[in-house]
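Design review, sub-item: ligand-bound model
Attendees: FS, YL, KQ
YL presented the inputs for the zinc ion complex:
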Amino acid sequence: MAPSKVLAGARVVLPTGTVDDGRVIVDGTRIADTAPPQAEVVDVSGHWVVPGFVDVHNHGGGGASFAGGTAEEVLKGVETHRRHGTTTTVASAVTGDLDFLARHAGMLAELAQQGDIAGIHFEGPFISPCRKGAHDAQLLRDPDPAEVRKLVDAAHGHAKMMTLATELPGGLDSVRLLVEHGVIAAVGHTDATYEQTLRAVDAGASVATHLFNAMPPIGHRSPGPVTALLEDERVTVELINDGTHLHPAALQLAFHHAGAARVAFITDAMDAAGFGDGRYRLGPLEVEVADGVARLVEGDSIAGSTLTLDRAFKRAVTVDGLPVEDVVAAISANPARLLGLADRTGSLEPGKDADLVVLDDAFDLVGVMRRGAWVVDPRRG
Ligand SMILES: [Zn+2]
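KQ shared the predicted structure:
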C-alpha cells in the first residue's frame, strides 16, 4: 500500500472549479477528504494538479504497438503513455484479418482483466473503402452483425468501442448489436451523408471517431457527418489536437458547437509516440514517421499521430486558448464517463482512484500519479 500523501499549494482543478492554494489528499490508492496522521506533505506550489488523462483511442507508443504487439509490447506502450499523464488507456486495434483480430482481442482482454488497459477499441475492419485512411483496403468488410459479434465475444467483456462506417450494409444493425452488448458504437472512417449519420445516432451510435478526419467535409448543400455529429446532443466527438490532424479553427468550431462536455481529446497515437522518427508498422501497413508526423509509405495518408496527451493539454491551453477546466473535461472527465469509469477516475474527488497529473505554470508535465503511486515524481524534476 502506497503511503499517504498530501499534495499542497497547487492550483487544483476540481469538478466545481479551480481552487488556488488547494490540496489533494491521497490515502493509499485513493483520494480522501481528510488527511491521515503522518501523511507525507508534498509541496507542489506554483503547479497545477489535474485529473489523470483518459485516452479512448490509442494504437501504441514507446516503439510498441497495441494493434499487433505482444502483451509485453502493449505494456511498454501503456507505460510510455503513463509517463505522459495517461493513467487510463484503451488499446485500439486496426483493420486486420478477423481471426487475427479475435486472437489479438483475447490477449488484450487479459491485460484489461489485470487492469493494465481499460479495454479494447476496434477501429475497422467495418469501415468505408472511400475513407480508409491508414487501413488495409484488402481487409475492409461491410459490418456484418455476426462478425461484429465475433469480435465482441473475443474481447470477453472488455470491448469498449467499435468504429463503423454505419452507412454500409449491416451498419445500423451492427450499431444496435454493439449497444445491446454495452459497447460504444462510434461513427468513423465513413462516407455517410448527414441524414445517414443521424440514422446511426438514432440507432445508438454515440461517439464520432476523430471528428473531421476520415469523413467527408462540411458542404453547404451536403452538411455531411461532421454537422450531424456536432449538432446531436447524444454524441461525444473525438479530436486529435496535435496541430497536424486539425486546423486550430476546426478545433474551435467543434468546441463551440458541441460544448466542452461533448469533446474527448484522443491521441490516435501509433508506436512512434514518445519514441521518435523512423520506419514503423500500423497493423499490416508500413508507416514512415518524419518530424513527428506519421504517414503511410504507400500513398500519403496520415497514419495515426505521435501525440501524447500532455502535449495535447499544453497545446489546448497555450495555442488554442481554451480554459483549463474545459481541457480537463475533454481529456479526463468526458472520456472517463464514456468508458463508464466516472465513479473511479476522471476527476479529483474523494473515493476515486488517485490518478492525477502535475503541470508546471507553462503546462509542461512534471508529475504523474496513478492509483496513489508516482509514475513521475515531481520532486525528481
Ligand atoms: Zn485510430
